[in-house]
Specification:
six-stranded mixed sheet, two-stranded antiparallel ribbon, 5 helices, 10 strands, 38% helix, elongated
Length: 185
């Protein structure tokens, strides 16, 4: 089974990874080999103004960042991504889980759903901040988007006050999947 966990800077995404490690990969010796892929997608740098990289510099004026500034921002994004994925890999290594990583740039919602289809992922696991319907509508929610648009079953891990809660998203588009420990989605 190919499992993908979406990682970002939130604690919720790391709780989702911990849930996957503890429930899907812990003690799977002799079971069907599973493949874990960690994916992090960061937003591209915002571009302001009319030009491709212009930003406001006062009334009626536009400025263009230097190549050095653009390169510095790009390197900063890469370092942040590498740090997050390194932390996630360390969690997997403690349980001796072989893991693949992907670091992408773009709209996280669309990139995650796109890579799921290309890689033929069997199960997506995402962390959720637990936003209400109105907050999701105004702020947007990567996990909510993935639940409705991913071409595979999605497991939504939401952190509650008492600990971690896992919501198995049932969707008639997909057959039920049996997970270790008798969990069905």
């Amino acid at each position: 089974m190919r499992v993908m966990v979406s990682i970002d800077q939130s604690d919720e995404s790391f709780y989702a990874l911990k849930w996957a490690i503890d429930n899907l990969f812990d003690g799977l010796t002799g079971a069907e080999p599973s493949l874990l892929t960690l994916v992090h997608v960061h937003q591209p740098s915002k571009h302001y103004g009319v030009g491709p990289s212009a930003f406001p510099a006062g009334p009626g004026a536009l400025a263009y960042p230097s190549a050095m500034l653009i390169d510095s921002v790009r390197k900063s994004h890469e370092q942040i991504s590498a740090g997050m994925l390194s932390r996630a890999i360390e969690m997997c290594n403690k349980k001796v889980i072989k893991v693949d990583t992907l670091s992408l740039e773009g709209d996280p919602k669309e990139m995650i759903c796109g890579i799921i289809e290309r890689m033929k992922v069997d199960l997506l696991i995402v962390g959720s901040r637990g936003l209400g319907r109105i907050q999701r509508a105004f702020l947007g929610s990567v996990s909510d988007y993935c639940v409705h648009h991913a071409k595979c079953p999605t497991l939504n891990c939401e952190v509650t006050k008492g600990g971690q809660q896992v919501k198995a998203i049932k969707d008639e588009r997909f057959p039920r999947i049996s997970l270790p420990g008798g969990v069905f989605i």
